[in-house]
Amino acid sequence: MSRSPSDPAPPAPPEAPARGPAGGAAGPRFAVVGNPENRRVTLFAAAVRAAGLPAPRVLPWREVLDGGAAFRRGETVRVDSPGEEPEVERRLRGVADPTRVEGTARWYARFTGAVRGVAAAAHTSGARLLDDPAELAVLFDKRLCHAVLERAGVTVPPSPTSGPDGVPVRGWEDVRALLGTAGLRRAFVKLAHGSSASGVLAVERSGPGRVQAATSVERAPDGALFNSLRVRRYTSEAEVGAIVDALAPDGLHVERWLPKASLGGRAADLRVVVTGGRATHAVVRTSRSPMTNLHLGGARGDLAAARAAAEAAGVPFAAVLGLCERAAACFPGTLCVGVDLLPGTGWRRFAVGEVNAFGDLLPGLTGLPGSGAEGLDTYGAQVAAAALHAPHEEHHHDAVA
C-alpha cells in the first residue's frame, strides 16, 4: 500500500529547546494532561525519557478541572484519559461510586468542555496540541463517529441511530421497535458516550416477548446499574427493558450485531493502533462472549494466525491495516487512535466497529514489521511521530476497504 510523503517537521520552539539523544536536533517538550499515577501517563513518560527527551510536565486532571490549564510556549500537549481516578470520575460524571454505569452524558459534556479549555489555553500560549477538541467530541459520541466513518466510505455495521439525524432512542420501546426491523433482530445497544464496554448490551430477539442480552452491566435490586468484570446473560424482556430504560437518558446507539470470525474456536476481533496516519500496532482479541475486551475475560490471540486466515480468504493484510488507516484519516488532528476492527465470518469482510481516542494502552506490544515503529511500544511510536507530523494537517493514505 502506498503512503504519503513525510510531513514537514513542526517549527522549532522559540524558547531554549530540549536536546535530543546524543546532542542531536531539538525534540519536542511534552506536557501531558492526565492523572499522574495512571499507567497511561507513566508509560508515556517512560517513552519520552527513552527517546532522550526531558520528562514530560504533567498537568493533573483534577487541577485542570479546578482551574484550567496553562502551557509554556513551544510545548507539545498530549491530552490523556481522565479515567481510573475516582475523584476525577466523580467530578465528570456526578456519581460517588466509579463503578456506576450512569452519568455518561454528564461526563461527555464536562470532558469535552474541559478539552476545549485546554485547547484554548494551548492556542493562547503558543503550545502545540496533539488532540483536536472537535475530533475528540466526535470520537466520544458513537452516533457521530459512526456517521463520519460511513460518509468517508469506511465499512461500518449498519445503524439506524447514526448521525445527528439518526432515529432517537428514548427507551426500551424504541429499541424493541428497531429489533423488529430487517437485519436488527440481533443488535448491539451501546451508550453513546461509553467506553471499555460499559453499558453495552448484545441483544437478541427471537420472537414476541422472547429477548435475551449479554452484558457486563449488573443491576442492583434498587435499579442502579454497575459495571462488573463478568459478562452475564439476562433472559427476560422485563430485565433487558429495565436496563435499557435506565441507560437511555444518557443517549444510546444501536447497530447490527455482525457475526465475527473465529480463531481457535473463539470469536475474534482486532485492535489496531494508528499513529501519525500509519497502522503501527495490532493485537487480536478473542472471547467466548460477544464482548472481547480483555478486562471482561477476553484474551490476546495469535496475530500471525489472524493474518494467515485473512490472506487465505483472499484479503491481503495490508488491506486490513489500510481500512484502519482510512478510519483514522477521518480524524487528522488526532495523532493516535485505536481502531476496533471486526472480521466477518470466514475472514473475507471487515468492518470498523469503533475508533477510540484512548485506544493505545497495550503494554509490552511492539510495532508491526514495516510500520516504522519496530521495537517501540505504542507510546514510543507516538513520541517519534510527534516529531515528524505537524498537528492538524490532513494525511492521505491509499487503502482497500
Q: What is the topology?
A:
Layout: E1 18-19, E2 26-27, E3 29-34, H1 39-50, E4 57-60, H2 61-67, E5 75-79, H3 86-93, H4 104-125, E6 128-129, H5 133-139, H6 142-151, H7 172-179, E7 186-191, E8 201-207, E9 210-219, E10 225-234, H8 237-247, E11 252-256, E12 262-263, E13 266-275, E14 278-287, E15 299-300, H9 303-312, H10 317-328, E16 336-343, E17 350-356, H11 378-386
Parallel strand pairs: 3-4, 3-5, 5-6
Antiparallel strand pairs: 1-2, 7-8, 7-11, 8-9, 9-10, 12-13, 13-14, 13-16, 14-15, 16-17
Helix pairs in contact: 3-4, 4-5
Descriptive notes:
Helix 4 packs antiparallel against helix 5 (133-139). Helices cover 29% and strands 24% of the residues. The chain has 401 residues and is an alpha+beta fold. Strand 12 (262-263) and strand 13 form a beta hairpin. Strands 12, 13, 14, 15, 16 and 17 form a six-stranded antiparallel beta sheet that branches. A five-stranded antiparallel beta sheet has the order 10-9-8-7-11. A four-stranded parallel beta sheet has the order 4-3-5-6, sandwiched between helices.
Q: Low-confidence runs (pLDDT<50, min 5 residues)?
A: 1-25, 390-401
Give the helix level as a range of percent: 25-40%
CA radius of gyration: 21 Å
Alpha-carbon distance between the two ends? 12 Å
- How large a portion of the residues is in β-strands, by DSSP E? 15-25%
* Main beta-sheet strand count, sense and barrel state: 6 strands, antiparallel
Q: State the secondary-structure class.
A: alpha+beta
Number of strands: 17
What does the overall shape look like?
globular
Rounded average pLDDT? 89
Helices, by number, come to: 11
Q: What order do the helices and strands follow?
A: EEEHEHEHHEHHHEEEEHEEEEEHHEEH
